Amino acid sequence: MNTQLLLLVLFDGVAYGALVFLVAVGLTLVFGVMRILNVAHGSFYALGAYAAVSLAAWLATRGMPGYLAIPVYLVTAVVIGVVVGGLMERFLLRRIYDNEQALQLLVTFAIFMILENLQRVIWGVQPYFYSGPLNDLGNVSVANVTYTAYQTLFLPAVALVVLIGLRIFLRHTLAGSVIVAVTEDREAAMAVGINARRAFLVTFVIGATLAALGGALASPTTSVLPGIGPDMIVLSFAVAATAGLGQIEGAALAALLIGLGRSFAVFFAPEFEVVMPYLIMVLVLVVRPEGLFGRTTARKI
Questions:
Q1: What pTM, to 2 d.p., does this model score?
Q2: Of the candidates 202, 205, 201, 209, which has an alpha carbon nearest to the alpha carbon of residue 77?
Q3: Structure confidence at residue 2 (pLDDT)
Q4: Model confidence over 190-209: pLDDT tens digits?
Q5: What gap in Å lies between CA 129 and CA 127, rounded to an integer?
Q6: Is 232 a residue whose pLDDT tops 80?
Q7: C-alpha to C-alpha distance for 56 and 273, rounded to whole angstroms
Q8: How many C-beta neighbours within 10 Å does residue 298 have?
Q9: CA distance 46 to 43
Q10: Residue of 255, 253, 242, 234 lying closest to 294 (CA atoms)
Q11: Judging by beta carbons within 10 Å of its beta carbon (0-12, 13-18, 19+), is residue 266 exposed, middle or buried?
């Protein structure tokens, strides 16, 4: 294996891992706090991608430079997280918090199917693509290997900011402390006057926003078409299970591991590209059923 090829694998794997992390960390945050495996999480990713590419492409036809699509992506993700995620938590999930997890899983699966069909009604089945930010940020060259700055620098930087930001938010802010208190002992937190429902709403909106942001930031790197939501939710479950459900730092490491594993498969054994993330997950779970960082006796976010 020569150095150039190894660098290509590294760049591709880190960029892909960064995108997967953005989605998976929202999923694991929601599970860590609310104990709900949200199957509809992949729909937020798809909605973020469709809305971002449509809005950015439309604004580009009116003269907007490509790099300004990045703040558009952020605003789009926040709107989807607050509006779609907020409505889903307020009017659907809040009614089933005290029910069995099997029912919660079925409800989120039903929402996922509804949102999938809604995407087809709105955007049809044709692919969408807009690469303005990818083109405007240019390329970087390392050891005679040229790769896009958007994937080499920008996406990993965003993932790192999200990881650090979540830790600061949860450990050093009042709202974060409330969420942690609800996670550790919901009944005790409510007994001292903490509004657990509000903590759940904030957590779910953050998780939905991160998934939508992952979709929006992925849109310049790939065609947006039907099926991206199911693909990403399955991959996010693999990352969350590999890390240990509810483990934020673990999700970062698992996403990087799976991203690099997939990239190696793409370059050296393409027939294993699809199964590589799940092979890694199975190998980890056989050795550690609770995941790389999971614990069997304590709830942790």
A1: 0.92
A2: 209
A3: 79
A4: 888 888 889 999 999 999 99
A5: 7
A6: yes
A7: 30
A8: 8
A9: 5
A10: 242
A11: middle
